[in-house]
Write a structure and sequence with these properties.
This protein has a domain at 39-81. It starts with a helix and ends in a 5-residue tail after the last helix. The radius of gyration is 30 Å and the shape is rod-shaped. 86% of the residues lie in helices and 0% in strands. It has helices spanning 2-19, 26-83. It is mainly α.
Length: 88
Amino acid sequence: MTLLGSFAIVLSPFLIGCISDSEIDWFRLADVGQAYGSVSVLVSALALVGIVATSIIQSRQMRIALEYAQREQHALLLRMAMEGNCSA
């Protein structure tokens, strides 16, 4: 899939030239590409913010899950001690 995308990107100027009947203004197309470059930076920045936020939320959830597991283990030990099932 990646190879196909790379191939399409390399061939796109030639394909545009074959499809178009008139002369192509490559400088204008380059300006349009530069405009999309800034949009690409913004989308990438938003994706990075999303990844960082997800990592923070996941870290908090892991801490909560660990605390819950520790409390469950402590409650189990207390229950075993009160029932006399501990062999220490």
